[in-house]
Write a structure and sequence with these properties.
single chain; about 140 residues; alpha+beta; 2 domains; four-stranded antiparallel sheet; 5 helices; globular
Amino acid sequence: MILEAAELTIRYPGAAQPALDRVSFRVGGGELVAVAGPNGSGKSSLLRGLLGLSNDATGRVTLDGTPVAEWPRREFATHVAALPQREDSTFPMTVADAVLLGRWARLGPIAPARAADHAAVASALDRCQMRGFANRG
């Protein structure tokens, strides 16, 4: 799958400068990309724009050539996921549990996780060299 942004601009109401100004890039399937920068540099705005969660965005964001806004959200969630950097949870959750949330679109709201889901979580943690943190709460 290819995620592509073309001229993505996010300008918040009342802001003197845009949070993002004409950002364009293309990420192919299997590529691992990091977004880094100081506080206030637009990292979270970029993610919100890529996920179709910003009402203040202009430009074009597509997944495999289809605009993100046109994807059925559940189907989109089987291809793209994001986890907020800071999130307070009412329920105690391990790192592995948080990663397992990414399987929700495949499982549904009440289906139990299967062996294949746990294997996918282990694979994702291995890919990020985070398996040692799997049981950390």
